[in-house]
Design a protein that fits this description.
heterodimer; A: alpha+beta; 5-stranded antiparallel β-sheet; 5 helices; 9 strands; about 35% strand; B: about 600 residues; 6-stranded parallel β-sheet; 23 helices; 20 strands; about 15% strand; globular; binds thiamine diphosphate
């Protein structure tokens, strides 16, 4: 018996689990290329958890876009082929996939964060002590505030930000993920 | 040898160098320099449409009927926005278009200047690629690249937005020979090992079926030729999507007719019950698959497509083959010929027996009448009358489109132009104009509905101006028939806004434009009037008054599987209303 609602559009209930992948996309650094990539994600309903862009070869006008996305495994495959279809895209590498093939848990992933904390007295001292433990460096300070710079894995940065919350956290700026695979080979 | 010329000259020169003979357009402030250049030469003919949407569909008709890219020229702002529907249509149906849009001068971009719009922003998601050309140095490269991108890989529309100052600027022209995109190089040759595996499956199959699509047409006439050979060599049955009609001859006994929502019973049953599906250049669209979890449950699937993102998108397949249809078909043929194993004759005989059983249901039968013209009958008569001619058919969107697909039969590719993916009412008439421009001596007929034809009726003026004897065969049921049918299926037969109140007198309308108008009201006068239409050397509006409440069958009702079709002759009215139940009514 057909238990599906009658419609020309079939509605599927998906129960599979979501996976998070880090994709590295080499593109021609031409106007609008980022809009194309982002537009693809919004038009097709894909998620962007994190996005980092910058030019990596000045002479060849090539930029590297690092995208962290969460989706069903088969949708991740779709995302890659949809990205590859964009004319200015040179290559898409699924760093998570490559890491797995090489028996690594994950690709190398780092993020940089600037964290402003304001306060006096015991809170201020505590913030400084914790920053030291987390290997965050002070890049600006007055008697009322610090700005910490911190590089590391995403969960370490998130943990630090959480701890700073009660100690007078004012604002945070994060770069998004930079990622490469381990080993001597390039993408 | 680089030549010095203005941007506007480069545009016209590049078109000529690309072999473009005809373009479709509409002038305005931001493209006047290009229009001035067009005026001073006679290599490229410009067809003045009456609305920019008309230009895009005309270019689509031109492209689809010739295999060459269609070219559009429009002004900035409203000119560009009016082109958006046609660009989207071309993207959905993989039609190669190059659309040149004028833009305000570079120093005014971003200032909300008169007739400025963010053309590259607006068209980013409805083109295969687009360019804003900011300097004269980039212009020749971009123009030639646009043709390369539009016509190779999976074809599609490309927009080149040219600010007015760049059209006036002077620079060095470079010809197409010297240009190739740095990184864009689609793969055309299929993976040999996968093709081998596919052929091995084919030789073992007991219930195989070829399921082909628009990709075969896009790949060129060679692909259709190779497909015919392969189908003959294997003895397998073949069906096709709406977009693929004509790639295999409809008169051949191995042809099952179109599949999908309004496909034949035998085609859909064969798809459902097959043990091997060989998809060549089709994309498992939802109009084809019906209910996905019940789609051809027992089959292994081979899928040949030039677009990697089409593979494993809607349906998981066993052997995905990335490549151009003609290239892959050629390899398949070679491997089938060389194969020691041969198709399983005994199993195929049994399979054909089953198929003949389904064919015996005669799913395209309909109730005949000698008092009113049944729409299906009208198409059958039109088909018979067109047979002796070199005919090209376009359609609008609605019931008439499906009836045309069911009752008009195609023996050759590139003869059938219809809006499949986007389903754009208003496509057919300008598309027929574009087709007629490409084939001035042929018979070009737009099979239309009374509602659709009004969406681009202004193009009658274009047809008259250029003496393009396009025939518009309107199945006038005084309803947006397809909407009314769905209202009957889904919404208690309440005809909310689907009755075409105050339709014009199409005969007088034709005359007002300087075209010829014909009306047929009874079956017995139909043949004579159709002959009059075909014999006329003028554009004709043919007002064919048909039964107003006929439904389009057979039909896979919403959310049902291929083996749950409604057939036309055995459904009672109450059954139609119950065919789609429950919460699905909210979904279309
Ligand atoms: C531009 C556009 N608007 C709306 C629709 C939705 N639509 C699909 S079929 C149809 C009715 C078409 O009526 P008609 O042209 O008279 O053809 P018939 O179905 O009666 O043969 C409508 C409104 C569409 N496909 N395209």
């Amino acid at each position: 018996m057909n238990t599906q609602p009658g419609s020309a559009y079939f509605i599927e209930e998906r129960t599979e689990t979501l996976v998070t992948h880090t994709l590295s996309v080499l593109v021609d650094n031409e106007p609008g290329v980022l809009a194309r990539v982002i537009g693809l994600f919004s038009a097709r309903g894909y998620n962007i958890d994190s996005l980092t862009v910058s030019e990596v070869s000045h002479e060849r006008h090539v930029s590297r876009i690092t995208i962290v996305t969460t989706a069903l495994a088969e949708v991740i495959v779709q995302i890659k082929s949809q990205l590859e279809r964009l004319v200015p895209v040179h290559r898409v590498t699924d760093l998570t996939e490559v890491a797995k093939q090489n028996n690594h848990e994950k690709p190398l992933e780092r993020e940089l964060a600037l964290i402003k904390v304001a306060g006096t007295g015991e809170n201020r001292l505590e913030a400084l002590r914790l920053a030291d433990a987390f290997k965050a460096t002070v890049i600006d300070a007055t008697t009322e505030h610090f700005v910490f710079e911190m590089t590391g894995r995403v969960n370490k940065i998130e943990q630090f930000i959480q701890i700073m919350q009660p100690l007078g956290l004012v604002e945070v700026c994060r770069t998004g993920l930079a990622a490469l695979n381990r080993g001597p080979e390039g993408m | 040898m680089a030549e010095q010329m203005t941007g506007a000259e480069m545009v016209v020169r590049a078109l000529a160098d690309q072999g473009v003979t005809d373009i479709f357009g509409y002038p305005g402030g931001a493209v006047l320099p290009i229009y001035d250049e067009l005026f001073m030469q006679d290599k490229v003919r410009h067809i003045l449409v009456r609305h920019e949407q008309g230009a895009t569909h005309a270019a689509e008709g031109f492209a689809r009927s010739t295999g060459k890219p269609g070219v559009v020229l429009v002004t900035s702002g409203p000119g560009a926005t009016n082109a958006v529907t046609g660009l989207t249509d071309a993207l959905m149906d993989s039609i190669p278009l190059v659309c040149i849009t004028g833009q305000v001068p570079t120093h005014l971009i971003g200032s909300d200047a008169f007739q400025e719009c963010d053309t590259v922003g607006i068209t980013r998601s409805c083109t295969k690629h687009n360019y804003l050309v900011k300097t004269i140095e980039d212009l020749p490269r971009v123009l030639h690249e646009a043709f390369q991108v539009a016509t190779t890989g999976r074809p599609g529309p490309v927009v080149v937005d040219i600010p007015k100052d760049v059209q006036f600027a002077s620079g060095h022209y470079v010809g197409p020979e010297n240009i190739s995109h740095q990184t864009y190089h689609p793969k055309v040759k299929g993976d040999e090992a996968k093709i081998e595996a596919a052929v091995a499956l084919m030789m073992r199959a007991k219930k195989p079926v070829f399921y082909t699509g628009g990709g075969v047409i896009n790949s060129g006439p060679e692909a259709s030729r190779l497909l015919r050979e392969l189908v003959k060599l294997t003895g397998f049955p073949i069906t096709s999507t709406l977009m693929g009609l004509g790639s295999y001859p409809a008169a051949d006994p191995q042809w099952l007719g179109m599949l999908g929502m309004h496909g034949t019973y035998e085609a859909n049953m064969a798809m459902h019950d097959c043990d091997l599906m060989i998809n060549i250049g089709a994309r498992f669209d939802d109009r084809i698959t019906g209910r996905l979890d019940a789609f051809s449950p027992g089959s292994r699937k081979i899928h040949v497509d030039i677009d990697p993102s089409s593979l494993n998108k809607n349906v998981k397949v066993d052997i995905p083959i990335l490549g151009d249809c003609a290239h892959v078909l050629e390899d398949m043929l070679r491997l089938v010929r060389a194969s020691k194993a041969k198709p399983d004759g005994a199993a195929l005989k049994e399979w054909w027996g089953e198929i003949e059983g389904w064919r015996g249901r005669k799913s395209l039968n309909y109730r005949k009448s000698d008092k009113i013209i049944m729409p299906q009958f009208a198409i059958e008569r039109l088909y018979e009358a067109c047979k002796p001619h070199d005919t090209y058919i376009t359609t609008e969107v609605g019931q008439h489109q499906m009836w045309a697909a069911q009752y008009f039969h195609f023996e050759e590719p590139n003869r059938w132009m219809t809006s499949g993916g986007l389903g754009t009412m208003g496509y057919g008439f300008p598309a027929a104009i574009g087709t007629q421009v490409a084939h001035p001596e042929s018979l070009c007929v737009d099979i239309a509905g009374d509602a659709s034809i009004l969406m681009n009726i202004q193009e009658l003026s274009t047809a008259v101006q250029y003496r393009l004897p396009v025939k518009v065969f309107i199945l006038n049921n005084q309803y947006m028939g397809m909407v009314r049918q769905w209202q009957q299926l889904l919404h208690g037969n309440r005809h909310s806004e689907s009755y075409m109140e105050s339709l014009p007198d199409f005969v007088k309308l034709a005359e007002a434009y300087g075209a010829h108008g014909i009306r047929a009201e009874t079956p017995d006068e139909l043949d004579g009037k159709i002959a009059e239409m075909i014999d006329s050397d003028m554009p004709v509006l043919f007002d064919c008054r048909v039964a107003s409440l006929a439904n389009c069958f057979p039909m896979i009702p919403s959310g049902k599987a291929h083996n749950e079709m409604l057939l036309g002759d055995d459904v009672a009215e109450e059954e139609i209303e119950k065919a789609i139940e429950g919460s699905g009514k909210a979904l279309v």
